[in-house]
């Protein structure tokens, strides 16, 4: 086994974060240890403990570094297009670094702590807020039944994306997103006389 490699600053941090994501894939969240990350990064444990007091803090910082910024409002301009755009961004962001965020959500059953704060605050909550605003805008245009423009309905799409990974270990593909939007969300929310554009 090779010994520590002398690196500092951004180079060391990048190696440590890469090791975190590699270990999440190789051994999973529950079996990930600070010692294992240090070995995979070819550095000493002291380099980790000087900055992070626990694996939760370390993984939280790694996720914060790698996850994209909170999503911007959708630009498609139609109810269906905006829903697909937002769910696609949600799926792609959760799939960052070989699905590291998915793995944390799946294995950290407590649902609390810095990692969930990062994933929820940076990604899940902003996407759900934008989905809710999309449904409200659709209700104002007459595309969505007013009673269907709710936060509970805004949860449905993201929940299906996460559920697919939790139960099958798969990141939902584009066809899956289309099915969720066309066959579940739009069927549940569309106003009776709305003409929802589809390809």
In short:
By secondary structure, this protein is an all-alpha fold. The chain is 68% helix and 0% strand.
Top CATH class of the largest domain: Mainly Alpha
Amount of helix: 55-70%
SSE pattern, N- to C-terminal: HHHHHHHHHH
Overall SS class? mainly alpha
Instruction: Examine the secondary-structure arrangement and name the CATH architecture of the largest domain.
Output: Orthogonal Bundle
Task: Name the beta content range.
Answer: under 5%
Shape: elongated
Uncertain segments: none
Task: Report on the architecture of this protein.
This protein has 199 residues and is an all-alpha fold. The chain has 2 domains: 9-65, Arc Repressor Mutant, subunit A; 69-189, Orthogonal Bundle (Tetracycline Repressor, domain 2), CATH 1.10.357. Helix content is 68%, strand content 0%. The chain has helices spanning 9-26, 28-31, 34-40, 45-49, 55-66, 79-94, 96-107, 114-141, 151-168, 174-189. The longest helix is centred in the middle third of the chain and has 28 residues, at 114-141. The radius of gyration is 20 Å and the shape is elongated. The model has no long low-confidence stretch (mean pLDDT 87).
